[in-house]
Amino acid sequence: MSSRFVAGLTLDDALRAAQAVNSQGMAVTLDSLGENVGSPEEAHRSAAIYHRLLDIIRQHHLHANVSVKLTQMGMDLGHELAKEIVSGLVEHAAASDSFVRVDMEGSAYTQATIDLVRRLHAAPENKGRVGVVIQAYLRRSAQDIADLTSEGIRIRLCKGAYKEPPAVAFPDKKDVDANFVKLMHTMLRSGIYHGIATHDEAMVAATKQYVQEQGIASDSFEFQMLYGIRRDLQRSLVASGYRVRVYVPFGTEWYPYFMRRLAERPANMLFLAKNMLKK
């Protein structure tokens, strides 16, 4: 089952998957799976894979960038370690004309993640080279998006996949959907190139309707979807003239990654099961 959603174990597997996605007219973000490393050495080894990815993207002229998790870069071991490692990746991305997306993890990491991205983006040489993910189910996200867009920081908006308490996140889907639409409006009005990450046809339709009503160019933002999920919808959007980026995970840590996500939030299992039945 996992092979449907994970590109493979190696850098070569990731390259092949990225080339295949690019050949269909879609961009890629590459994610070397892993999180919550236990030592600085492990964090640096994880970062080395991303440095290699940035080189591969340049060497093979891929339409791609990378996504990293701060706990994989040593955040649990110290914020300065994570800053040092991610700063090196952003510097490499800037030199390679690429981009680093810092993924969002559980709410315990939200503020630290945003603080680090803002700190890195504030350096003139990093402007436009580092972005972040905001989760629509968090109650704080409207203010976070206002702060980030005021600084010109690119955002990937998603619904959120971690188990969170009601005090922190909207528990009901209808409220998450309503917040997603509200946040999408704010982002697309900002004039910054953002990613709208959803497989929900209602959210896709709401986005398309808004950009058409507001006269927003279809190439001024992108839809983002996971590898292997709603491939029919991905192709349909490209055929309609929209930009699409596919999030391509790979690596030997695929099993613990899947088990953690499925164990902490049973809705994730239902999401994957439904998508196994779609093309």
Descriptive overview:
The radius of gyration is 17 Å and the shape is globular. The chain has helices at residues 11-23, 40-59, 79-95, 110-121, 141-150, 173-189, 201-214, 231-239, 254-264, 267-276, and strands at 27-32, 64-68, 100-102, 130-135, 155-158, 195-197, 222-226, 244-250. Helix 7 links the parallel strand 6 (195-197) and strand 7 (222-226). It is built from 10 helices and 8 strands. Strands 1-2-3-4-5-6-7-8 form an 8-stranded parallel barrel, surrounded by 7 helices. The chain has 279 residues and is an alpha/beta fold.
Main attributes of the structure:
279 residues; alpha/beta; 10 helices; 8 strands; 8-stranded parallel barrel; 48% helix; 14% strand
The number of distinct β-strands equals 8
In whole angstroms, the N-to-C terminal distance is 14 Å
Low-confidence stretches: none
Label the overall shape: globular
Strand count, sense and closure of the main sheet?
8 strands, parallel, barrel
Relative strand content: 5-15%
User: What does the radius of gyration come to?
Assistant: 17 Å
Total helical segments: 10
Series of H and E elements: HEHEHEHEHEHEHEHEHH
**Class based on secondary structure composition and strand pairing:** alpha/beta
Summed up:
This protein is α/β, with parallel strands linked by helices. It has ten helices and eight strands.
Summarize the SSE layout with pairings.
Layout: H1 11-23, E1 27-32, H2 40-59, E2 64-68, H3 79-95, E3 100-102, H4 110-121, E4 130-135, H5 141-150, E5 155-158, H6 173-189, E6 195-197, H7 201-214, E7 222-226, H8 231-239, E8 244-250, H9 254-264, H10 267-276
Parallel strand pairs: 1-2, 1-8, 2-3, 3-4, 4-5, 5-6, 6-7, 7-8
Helix pairs in contact: 2-3, 5-6, 6-7
